[in-house]
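thread from #wetlab-drylab

HS: before we spend reagent money on co-crystallization trials with S-adenosyl-L-homocysteine, can we at least see a predicted complex? here's what I'd submit
DV: go for it
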Amino acid sequence: MTAPTQRRQLAVIGQTRDPRPGLSGLAPAELEAWFVARGERPYRARQVADAMWRGVATDAAAIATLPAAVREAVDGEFRFDTIVSTEVRPADGGLTEKALHRLSDGALIESVLMHYPARGAQRERHTLCISSQAGCAVGCPFCATGELGFTRDLETAEIVDQVRHAARSLAHNGQRLTNVVFMGMGEPLLNLDNVLAAVQALADPARLGLGARHVTVSTSGVVPGIRRLTALGPQFTLAVSLHAARDSLRDALVPLNRRWPVADVVDAARDHARATGRRITYEVTMISGINDTPQDAEALAALLAGDHAHVNLIPMNPVAHTPWTASPMGVIEQFAARLRASGISTTIRRNRGQDIGAACGQLAAERAGEPAAAAVSRRRERIVRESAAALRGERSREPLPVGVGE
Ligand code: SAH
Ligand code: SF4
């Protein structure tokens, strides 16, 4: 695998993080306690929360309901917004808006806002796809974020502030955010404490007030994380990125399969579905000639037969520096038909925003600069070599990526 030192940097080296915690990462009781400790009335916390979630203020200094001295004190202690700047690129005729956010240390993360107009009985929806980490350590070879490697976990407020950004932009048009999916950069179950705190903020009626059913967290298969969620009870909808039912192939497509093999992942997901009564969604990115064969459809049908599960088949978004492309639609349809024949409910999804690279990580990768030609060709050769071995049914002998699975 590519050594981390050869990887392009997502953060501006030397730029330090603003040490003030982000306001939106604080639970209301924590903020209230801070005000009380300063001899202020507890309702000040409510005024700050209103400004954060419903107001037009862009920094603490502009919260009109607070006396000037209190505003200054809040500003000295906390960051009103952890996102320093954002560049938005529209696509799909305005139905998709891709945002590249810069954080205080220069790290770049992405979020994607997708608008779905009303259709028949289905009301209009506005879904935001957010990031949980800057980069990702898992290193799936078809993913732009995976190629960038891991920079750092996001703080709770950095996760929440992506949502505030989108909610503000929707409010300008009299619209409301209806769904949030953790399918941007990063592996949410490897930053689970902050993801759980962020989901709590999104679900709290005093903050965003999004029903927990309208939040989906996608994982590449961190088994201890899934089990921890099961013990907590239903928190949100869980999606599992499966991509392959056979260990040899999944070792190559999702490198942490070498630590938690596919049978363990599906066992954990099954227990989760049983304990919470919530259906699991499995994601399969369809890659031509790699994981879309009749043998793969057969293996997946056998693996999930009889489960309370749903499968989404997603044509691979083209990303730079991979030798792979999306499966043709006819092949995906045959794959879906095989799963449905086993009673597994299956949807074929179209990836949004391909013209601006909506598979998360692509804008950040563009900013990180083009890697040296030699590094690109080494990467391609490695992907071809590993997938060829996988297709012959050989388990991977590659080491686990650094930072996953300890
Ligand atoms: N790390 C988590 C969540 C972020 S990735 C996970 O892997 O589940 C969110 C989804 O985007 C995953 O299902 C992932 O497989 C998919 N994805 C990544 N790169 C893609 C690409 N080039 N084309 C299509 N889907 C992609
Ligand atoms: Fe990480 Fe998910 Fe991309 Fe894999 S697909 S590298 S787990 S972000």
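DV: Residues 1-6 have pLDDT under 50 and may be disordered.
HS: ok that's useful, forwarding to the group
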